[in-house]
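#lab-general

N.A. 3:47 PM
ok so I finally got the sequence cleaned up, no stray characters, all 1052 residues accounted for. can someone with queue access submit it? mine expired

B.Y. 3:52 PM
send it over

N.A. 3:53 PM
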Amino acid sequence: MKYSVILPTYNERKNLPVIVWLLAKMFKDNQLDWEVIIVDDNSPDGTQDVAKQLQKVFGDDRILLKPRAGKLGLGTAYIHGLEFCTGDFVIIMDADFSHHPKFIPYFIRLQKEHNLDIVTGTRYRSKPTPALSGASVEPGGVHGWDLKRKLVSRGANFLADTVLSPGVSDLTGSFRLYRKEVLRDVISKVQSRGYVFQMEMMVRAKALGYTVGEVPITFVDRIFGESKLGGDEIVQYAKGVWNSRIAGMDESDSRVYSSFEKADEFFMRLDAFLKLDIILMEYQEQSFLLDPFLERMVAPPVNILRQHVADTVNKQAKWCRSRLENLVSLIYSYCRVRGQKAIVRFFPHEVSDLPIVIAYMSLDNGPVSRADWWNLRCLMLLWMSLICMVPFDLHRFDGAAASGTTLDSIQTMGKGYLAYAGIEREMAAIMLARLYTRKDTNDAFREFLAYSQPLVEDSDKFFAALGVLKALCEYCNSQSADKLIEHVPAILDIANRAQGLGVHNSTVRKLRLKLISRLSMKLLPPPRPRRRGFRGLMGIGDVQTEDQDNDLGEDIEVPEEVESAVADALQLLEDKDTPIRWSASKAVARLAERLPREFTEQMFEQILGIFAENSWKSDIELLDLPPTAEFPWHGACLACAEFTRRDLVPTNRLADMIPWIVKALHFDIRKGSHSVGSSVRDAASYVLWSLARSHDLDVISQSMDTLARELVVTAIYDREVHIRRAASAAFQENVGRTGLFPDGIAVLAKVDFFTVGVRRQAFTIAAAEVAKYHAYRQALMDHVIDIVLQHWDASMRQSGAESLRAICSADPDVLGQLALQQLIFSALHEVPTNMLRARLSDLVLEGYCLVISTSVSVEALSSSSTEGGSAMPAWRSAIEQALRSRTDSVQSAAAQAMRRGAMPQLQQGIIRALGALAYDAHPHGMLEAIHCLLGAVDSKSSTFSQIIESRQRVYEALPNILTTLGDGLASGSTGTYDRRTIYNALLCGLEDYTSDERGRRRLLGPNGIDQRTREDHHPFVFSEIQLGSSIVPADQTTIWLLLGSSNKASSG
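B.Y. 4:20 PM
back already:
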């Protein structure tokens, strides 16, 4: 049994060390398992420091310090300490020596003797109740009290006993022993706090039917410190007794809480609330599935937020931090998952809400002023952006504004949040953009432009510059062209001023690009209709006619601002940051679909020119790419994809684009210890995916066979998993939309999303299955041999070799020969010797040895010739060179090759040497030698020798070992090898018949065993062999031969 002691402390620095020492001594003397839980209520006298020192003395497992933030009451201290008890019984007592630990053994004995649930100390009995056999206990009493305190204590117990009749003599005592489960049950039902707590604990325990015993104790007034009992506690006690009497312990009455009785319900609801965020995150990739339920999800919490704002402004209620925090977190989670545009539709947008929201945002000590309430500020700004769009006169609320007009208040608030570093800046920009799109705020927007011009040039106000650019982007996106036209020069001036700030910052460059492209789109007519044969997505009202195809407004005069924007966007296609290139590609395509065809063709010509400009050779078949080509090629591929998706690629230039895209599919340039180009390959897959959705089948049909082979090769053999999946998606799109890929449906099943997701499956399983189709077989083999087997990544070369084997296994005679014809070396002897001996030859040596260990037969090695007058074959020289390498992998490969390439004569010589060693003088290697020899003749062993002479030498060596050891075998065993195992191996040799060009031969004659038995002078060798359980049955001839040998041994 283990006993846990709960010690509530407050200013007990002097008492605590002594009481803990007494407890430890008592438990040790009685050989009891124990722990002390110290619950300190933030004592100012350093009690916690003393407790930490006690932990060092007695150990953290014995002394547990569980402090609280302040003085929260005696009853709650017991509740807090109970959470950390690990014992079977809990003892509660004071830490001021009022309760001496010497009485605890009597508590324990009385509990064990009568199996009690509770044992309490009493100052008012002379004998234990029930009786404790074989023990003499002193009568209870008190020492150090004056007459007044004695009368108070007696009177309190008399009052409780008279009113409640609990049957316990000392209700106010706090020295007790509980079963832990009983204490947990009783304490959960207690309503009181303070010193009334002890009385109610005992009354409730008796009412619940728990058994209670009493042990007389001597109560001594505290040695150090002051008593915490005062007049307030006495009054509370009297009230508690009387309330308990009147209420009859009815829990439904009004009460003062001492515990969190609804903790389970609270945490259940809290867990459910926290799980909401987890559930929402599961739908983030397909958030549109939430649309049918958004109103039911968003409206209730938003209405509660609205009520909170109104009540806070009108000072009708105080806001609850935890409730508001949960509410705001929930609404913001909706915005994060579904997007603010979809969620803001369910916000209230009545005109009367505007002054309330402004007042709420302007509160000095309101929730929005707290630094950690950024999500609340975002929601309020988002709400204001919706209200600002309602068509009403802002001046009607000017009287309600705190200072100035309502418009001034909104602008001041928005400009302030534009300088924030967090997401509040984004929401403030949206709010200002919505505000300035109103008909009555044109003059205010002109002032905002003047305010913004110096900001975008000031590097010290970087975040404010970002906010201004974001606000202008939103404004250009929302405002109509006729209202925007007068502000074009000012907006372009701000964009040009921001160019200097964007040199070293990608966010500024991205926002500036968005601003000039959106402004240029407002200056151009709507996008022209698609060409006849376009198979992409179209609007319901889009109808293609011949007139539309011809009347494209080719006489449009392109503004100079638009030309400048196009030039900037094309230049940013080569930017070093991926988000910039992605935005530039979309900007170029969106502008191109609004420009005349001639202008669009010129833009596309420039995009294709990026490929050639960033290559070292103009011939696309012999293209050699510099490492710096990654960014331009990626931007050009993205632009081609956007052009293709919008059906903007001129039909006559499609044949020029496809070769570049095919080359981009294999863009992989070594750069230091890694490679670059995965983004280019991904964008190339996007181009081919878009191609299936746009152009007429007659136009693209000529390139389908080439694209099918290249996409399959990329889907199987690319190093990156996301590229393999992107190529697989492009292949699937073309199969489904065009139907022009050879064996498309069948091959698609082999290179699906999940198969190509694992490299080993793609390289071995998918490649072998796709190679069965002749349209793809040669392309796969060529790519493996020319690219994968020469890849800089060793794991890719290894996987490529396995893949080539899987492909050739379908038809080894044909495909194997084709592969050999294309490999660098079709035979090992063609490998130059100087290549194996070069300084950086480890990779070649490793591969050389692996070929020997896995592919070359022993016969071929044995028959190999020497070169250059050397007595050693070239392969043997290479292995020795590898053994001297410092690289572990090369040494391991050499060891495998040695195992494969050991010549029969060498094996036989080693076996003879193992049999001839003097194990009687040097026994340390004997066990390994015997194990090696037995494995060579055991057909089930992985080291079984196929060479006849080698096994014959083993049967000669084993008797030699037994002879060498001589009398050392008298004990019946050779280390861990029983000698009967060796004899059984010799018997198996009598059954080992092998046929070769010399006829059928027995590898071991009776002379081997006869020699051993004769030298051993042991007439009962055969009898011992028969006793072995592992003897191998021999035929009749063998038995007679063996008997003959044994008889000769006996006669000798």
